[in-house]
Write a structure and sequence with these properties.
The structure holds three protein chains of three kinds.
Chain A (H helix, E strand, L loop, with lengths): L18 E16 L4 E17 L3 E5 L6 H8 L7 E6 L2 E2 L5 H8 L2 E4 L13 H13 L3 H14 L16 H13 L5 E5 L7 H18 L2 E6 L2 H7 L2 E6 L2 E7 H6 L4 H8 L6 H6 L30 H5 L5 E4 L2 E3 L6
Parallel strand pairs in A: 3-8, 3-9, 6-7, 7-8
Antiparallel strand pairs in A: 1-2, 1-4, 4-5, 9-10, 10-12, 11-12
Chain B lengths: L1 H28 L14 H11 L5 H25 L19 H36 L4 H15 L2 H15 L16 H38 L2 H8 L4 H30 L2 H7 L4 H10 L3 H29 L7
Helix pairs in contact in B: 1-12, 4-5, 4-7, 4-9, 5-7, 6-7, 6-10, 7-9, 7-10, 8-9, 9-12, 10-11, 11-12
Chain C lengths: L9 H8 L12 E6 L14 H7 L7 E3 L5 E3 L19 E5 L14 H12 L14 E8 L2 E6 L20 H4 L11 H5 L7 E7 L3 E6 L13 E6 L3 H9 L6 E2 L6 H8 L4 E16 L26 H9 L3 H9 L3 E3 L22 H10 L3 E2 L5 E3 L2 E2 L1 E7 L2 H16 L3 E7 L1 H4 L17 E6 L7 H4 L25 H12 L3 H18 L2 E14 L2 E2 L16 E2 L2
Parallel strand pairs in C: 1-9, 1-10, 16-17, 16-18
Antiparallel strand pairs in C: 2-3, 4-6, 5-6, 7-8, 8-9, 10-19, 11-18, 11-19, 12-19, 13-14, 14-15, 20-21
Helix pairs in contact in C: 8-10, 14-15
The chains are: A alpha/beta, B mainly alpha, C alpha+beta.
Chain lengths: 339, 335, 565
């Protein structure tokens, strides 16, 4: 039921320099207050120096444990939060601090699919109006045309166009996520952040939605940032993978290289937890069990973030933050051991 | 939905009967005497005769059944007569107040206009002011506006009308001499100067009552808005590139109003019930004052009738609130 | 309650009466009256409550009324019948009233003796629940001798025949209007009860029960130049403090009465100079009542608080006297009423001719009280509370819930504690305490306590009826449904004999002498302890002229009011 990764190779290959989205040292610190007078006493470093590149027409998988800042990163990229530092470049344009009309125009090109398909749809609006609403705002489509476009979109995501007059609660989880996708597609975006789009769905429906995303990518030449904690799904869908830990990206590279030869001990630990379909290999698989809990993002460890749980940590890890280094070609890693 | 409403109303009938019986029993069990306010110089034998004339000493079941008959048969017939000019209720004994020896329903009809005007207007003014305050407080949570709003709401909820009312009188009537302290229920508005007079005499009671509505409704709306502002669909709306006005007023406000509309609807019976304290302070003499004087005077027929009407109103407005919920929230269906 | 200006309070009033206006009818606009207890009915026969009878007195008139000095003056009557002018029969068994000729009802019809006879029939109907029925007791028949003459015949010798058709409680109503309102039909006549046709200076134009009454000048009033006001705006609701404010501070209203407000607050308001306070001393006396019978809960209900069991503590007069001596009545009066009250030892404080003027109780004497209790055999126990035969000297003291009364309770408890008496205080809602419901255990008449406090008063200037309330046969008993006016269950054959003698004495000087004697007997029994002679306080605006606060109704001379320019 899953299509082979090879299917994607039919797509026109984007050149290595054809970067649609580039993120440099992106930070987002939420201030924390304490006391009667509410003095600012520190900050939650939800995103703390993230570097990413997403190439046009490709899918970058962003993986990590829950709470590591994946979702926040996705939202900052779409400027749903204002970054506290760093830079976001979209299609060669710096969008880090744009506001007002310019931002709204940019939003038409960047969309998001949310994890919870129920919560992301306004319960008091019909499916048709949810999909059509941005069309008024950005496309100035009128009556018939708008209806036609809505029907097209519903059709594109595999829903009966007659459903336009129904309310979100009348649909199943998978159908709602299709509505969410149709809505995201309404403005013909270039780039879509898929924030764990299948996590809340039944396993039987997950594959359908993933395949739909793939088909749509092909059909509309979309670029995806696919946020997930499901490494098998990421392997299936993404060409590139970034591994995030406590607000920072640990490793970034092409999927096959990452899965075959992970460089960062955290990546290794994550991959060791993924079951393998081959029973022989599965039996021989050795899990690397990480000890301890994820440290608080309000007070991250010195030096390397991961050192407190790293099986191969040594003195330098506590003293010095590992640099974000290009190892080879498109591979980047931040680890003293990988030098 | 019609079936649902009818079913609910039918289910309310036994409840209301039970309520009427309970009100009656409680009033009868409570100590007190309709003649206790009379001068002590009226000798005991005469008091006995007066009690007998009022029917106070009839067996309780007789008194209760008589009231039921008067409330459910004679008074509706009377209403029918007034509407259609018939004479069905002629010669029938209506519910008579022990204080005034006049029909209770005439008194209610006489007092309802000023209660609806003052308490109702205060409610409307309160809601109209509360909504923008709630929106801004939630949208700019923890801003100076929100902090001031929170403080004033707490003050509005904490300060009882018998304090704020007297304070208002001291400031606006005694020291500034701008507003009258006594509400003239006989004022007929038929000219510009009458209108001004009516406006001035309503200003203080409406103000005092509206403060409480503002305080509670703005708090409700604020917390409901805050709940909704955090929802993914709001993020969706922003991600769609919708302007902030659309996001706040179309997406967030409409969803936030669902519980608030319910709260507002459930508060409506109290508009009919009047405001006992505020009506007393400003001598608006509406339904609230009628109830409290009747209670003081142990005027059982009046108290019983009013309490029962309130019970009916509460049942009806609860139903309306539920039905409104269904209209406003497409997720809820009554079938 | 009857309001009479005592000699002490008269000075302030006299200046107000000085200049009657020479105006025409209806030229002075509207007079605004604020009564925090609004009238609920305009027919005094169906209410008896002061708020209603006072308002009704603007519309309905009796044959004769009491003026500010407690003297009778004719209203509808041509003159006051007396034995001298032949109006009262020599055998004191009948009285003949003559109406003024040419009197008109407000609807223009003529007032006749038939209306007076009808009024008697209306009130004397046993099913009507007439509040003034007591005034008609002892009446054998009321008959019209001609169109202007009414003869009332009594069953027995009646020395004070001025009860029915006299004062605001018993006005004349129109036969035509109330013809169908006799007996059980009385309460159904809403129109007549709210809009009675009268002979008074005003007519009801708009009646909203318990809210507002609008009255306009009676076009058929007998004096063509009166009243000076074209109308009365009578507004109710709110509380006494707010009513005082509306007259004294914001001057929205001309008159507010029954101002039971702390004395210092009122005098502060008066200093604003927009209005005046008026204290009228009637017969109201705040009084302590001692239970002379045993209220112990261990007794069977038909014997509890009855003369079958004398009170274990209070039946000893020495104890009662000691309790009285421990009181400082002047302090109480000052604290609770300021200039609106006077300490008193008399339960009949007015009119002056009947007042005994005793003063010996006014001095507080704690050592004397201690000595008396010692003599009575009550010795201080280890905790300071006196004991006798291992029984503690402990009393339950009940009154109504009211700031002044509860303050009094606390102060009295303190004084009694000083002489070794333990006091348990209770307060009850007035509507419960004054209830006539025989099934309630908390009524003042049942007296399931040792000491009670409330205000007692007489409603006629002649205290004959009032002193008769303490005869032996008036004690509340279970087989009388606990109805009876002799609440302390006082019983003295000498007292009863004197009351009987008073019933046969017509000469006023003689009567006064007997009343004074009765007053002293009762005072010396210490069964009731008068504390403070209370006035009724009202406020009038500077521009209301002609107002005289005393008389049987607060508005008894409304026809003479005018607007001061």
């Amino acid at each position: 039921m899953m299509s082979e990764p090879g299917v994607l190779t039919i797509k026109p290959q984007a050149g290595p320099d054809d970067v649609l989205l580039r993120i440099i040292d992106l930070t987002l610190h939420f201030p924390t207050y304490r006391g009667v007078l509410g003095r600012q006493v520190g900050g939650i470093r939800a995103v703390d120096g993230v570097n990413l590149e997403v190439r046009r027409g490709r899918t970058l998988g962003l993986v990590g444990e829950s709470g590591c800042g994946k979702t926040t990163t996705g939202r900052v990229i779409l400027r749903l939060y204002d970054p506290t530092g760093g830079r976001i470049e979209f299609d060669g344009e710096d969008i880090t601090h744009i506001q007002g009309k310019k931002l709204r125009r940019m939003r038409a090109r960047m969309q998001m699919i949310f994890q919870d398909p129920q919560a992301c749809l306004n319960p008091r609006m019909t499916v048709g109006s949810i999909i059509a609403e941005p069309l008024n705002e950005h496309r100035a489509l009128k009556g018939k045309e708008k209806e036609k476009r809505t029907r097209e979109l519903l059709d594109a995501v595999g829903l009966n166009p007659k459903f336009a007059n129904r309310y979100p609660h009348e649909f199943s989880g998978g159908q709602r996520q299709r509505i969410g996708i149709a809505r995201a597609l309404a403005l013909n975006p270039d780039f879509i952040v898929c924030d764990e789009p299948i996590a809340a769905l039944d396993v039987s429906i997950q594959a359908q939605v993933v395949n739909l995303l793939k088909d749509l990518q092909e059909q509309f030449s979309l670029t995806y940032l696919f946020i997930s904690h499901d490494l098998s799904m990421v392997r299936h869908l993404c060409e590139d993978v970034a591994v995030m830990y406590l607000g920072k990206v640990m490793e970034l590279g092409p999927r096959d290289l990452i899965y075959k030869d992970p460089m960062h001990p955290y990546t290794k630990a994550l991959l060791s937890a993924v079951p393998v379909p081959d029973p022989r290999v599965e039996r021989a698989r050795q899990r690397i069990i990480l000890k301890g809990d994820l440290p608080s993002p309000a007070n991250p460890p010195s030096g390397c973030r991961f050192r407190t749980r790293c099986p191969v940590a040594f003195d330098r890890c506590a003293a010095e933050q590992p640099a974000w280094r290009k190892v080879a070609g498109n591979r980047w890693v931040a680890c003293h051991r990988a030098e | 939905m019609l079936n649902y409403a009818i079913r609910r109303l039918l289910m309310a009938v036994p409840t209301l009967f039970l309520i009427s019986l309970m009100i009656f029993s409680l009033l009868k069990l409570a100590p007190g005497d309709p003649l206790s306010q009379l001068p002590l110089t009226i000798p005991p034998e005469v008091r006995e005769k007066m009690r007998a004339a009022l029917g106070v000493d009839e067996p309780l079941i007789v008194q209760y059944l008589l009231w039921l008959k008067q409330f459910f048969v004679i008074e509706p017939l009377r209403g029918f007569d007034i509407l259609f000019g018939t004479h069905l209720s002629d010669g029938m004994q209506r519910i008579i107040s022990w204080q005034t020896r006049g029909p209770v329903f005439s008194m209610i009809a006489e007092r309802l206009p000023q209660t609806l005007l003052v308490v109702g207007l205060a409610y409307i003014v309160g809601v109209l002011i509360a909504v923008p305050i709630g929106i801004v407080s939630a949208y700019k949570q923890y801003s100076v506006f929100d902090q001031i709003g929170t403080f004033l709401s707490m003050l509005g909820l904490a300060v009882p009308p018998f304090f704020s009312g007297v304070l208002a009188i001291l400031i606006f009537a005694v020291y500034l001499d701008w507003l009258p302290t006594i509400y003239n229920t006989n004022l007929i508005v038929n000219s510009w100067s009458n209108f001004t007079e009516q406006f001035l005499q309503m200003a203080m009671p409406v103000m005092v009552l509206a403060v409480q509505t503002i305080a509670s409704i703005s708090r409700y709306l604020r917390s409901s808005m805050l709940d909704n502002l955090e929802q993914d669909y709001v993020r969706t709306a922003r991600a769609k590139g919708m302007g902030e006005n659309v996001v706040v007023f179309i997406h967030v406000l409409r969803n936030s109003m669902i519980p608030v509309v319910t709260v507002i609807t459930l508060g409506l019976p109290s508009v009919f019930g009047g405001a006992i304290v505020t009506e007393q302070i400003f001598r608006v003499n509406g339904i609230g004052q009628l109830l409290i004087t009747a209670i003081y005077a142990n005027d059982v027929p009046t108290v019983q009738t009013l309490a029962f009407i309130f019970a009916v109103l509460i049942v009806v407005f609860n139903l309306i609130a539920d039905l409104l919920y269904g209209v406003l929230d497409p997720r809820i269906r009554y079938d | 309650m009857l309001r009479m200006v005592s000699l002490l309070a008269g000075a302030g009033v006299a200046s107000l009466v000085a200049t009657p206006a020479l105006a025409e009818r209806g030229t002075d606009g509207v007079v605004n009256i604020l009564s925090w207890q609004a009238p609920s009915i305009m027919n005094p026969y169906l209410s008896g409550g002061e708020k209603d009878t006072d308002a009704a007195s603007l519309v309905l008139e009796p044959l004769a009324s009491y003026d500010e000095n407690g003297e009778l003056f004719p209203r509808l009557a041509a003159e006051i019948p007396t034995v001298e002018n032949g109006g009262v029969a020599k055998d004191l068994k009948s009285i003949t009233w003559k109406l003024k000729p040419g009197l008109k009802w407000s609807d223009g019809t003529t007032v006749t003796a038939k209306d007076v006879v009808f009024t008697a029939n209306y009130c004397m109907d046993p099913k009507g629940g007439c509040a003034a029925l007591a005034r008609f007791q002892g009446v054998d028949k009321v008959e019209a001798l001609d169109d202007l003459t009414v003869k009332v015949t009594f069953k027995e010798l009646t020395v004070v025949p001025y009860t029915l058709f006299v004062a605001m409680w018993s006005p004349i109503i129109q036969a035509k209007q109330f013809a169908d309102c006799l007996g059980t039909k009385a309460p159904t006549c809403t129109e007549a009860n709210f809009y009675p046709v009268g002979t008074g200076p005003f007519v009801v134009a708009n009646f909203k029960p318990n809210d507002a009454v609008q009255l306009k000048a009676n076009p058929n009033y007998r004096d063509p130049n009166k009243p000076a006001f074209a109308g009365v705006n009578f507004k109710g609701g709110g509380d006494a403090l707010g009513a005082a404010r509306a007259v004294l501070q914001t001057s929205e209203y001309d008159y507010a009465g029954m101002l039971q407000v702390a004395p210092d607050v009122l005098s502060k308001m008066e200093k604003g100079g927009k209005g005046k306070l008026l204290s009228v001393f009637g017969t109201n006396v705040e009084t302590l009542f001692m239970n002379l019978t045993d209220p112990s809960a261990s007794l069977p209900p038909e014997e509890r608080s009855t003369d079958k069991h004398p009170h274990p503590i209070l039946s000893d007069v020495r104890v009662r006297q000691a309790l009285s001596m421990a009181l400082d009545r002047a302090r109480l009066s000052e604290i609770g009423y300021g200039s609106m009250g006077k300490p008193t030892c008399d339960f009949v404080p007015a009119p002056p001719i009947f007042a005994a003027g005793n003063t010996e109780c006014l001095k507080q004497d704690i050592p004397g009280a201690v000595k008396l209790l010692d003599e009575a055999g009550w010795k201080p126990g280890p905790d300071g509370i006196r004991e006798k035969d291992s029984k503690k000297l402990k009393l339950t003291f009940v009154t109504t819930t009211n700031a002044t009364r509860n303050q009094f309770q606390a102060i009295i408890k303190q004084w009694w504690h000083e002489i070794g008496v333990d006091v348990e205080l209770r307060s009850l809602d007035a509507s419960v305490f004054f209830s006539s419901d025989p099934s309630s255990p908390d009524t003042y008449q049942k007296f399931y306590a040792d000491v009670q406090m409330w205000t007692n008063y007489s409603d006629a200037p002649d205290p004959g009826e009032y002193v008769a309330t303490y005869t032996c046969n008036k004690a509340p008993l279970p087989d009388k449904q606990w109805q009876g006016s002799n609440v302390p269950r006082y019983c003295d054959t000498n007292y009863d004999a004197l009351v009987k003698e008073l019933g046969k004495t017509a000469a006023i000087e003689k009567r006064a002498e007997i009343v004074k004697k009765l007053n002293t007997i009762l005072s010396d029994s210490y069964a009731i302890m008068p504390l403070v002679w209370r006035s009724s306080v009202s406020a009038t605006s500077k521009t209301l002229g002609g107002y005289v606060g005393s008389g049987d109704s607060r508005f008894w001379n409304a026809q003479d009011w005018y607007r001061r320019k």
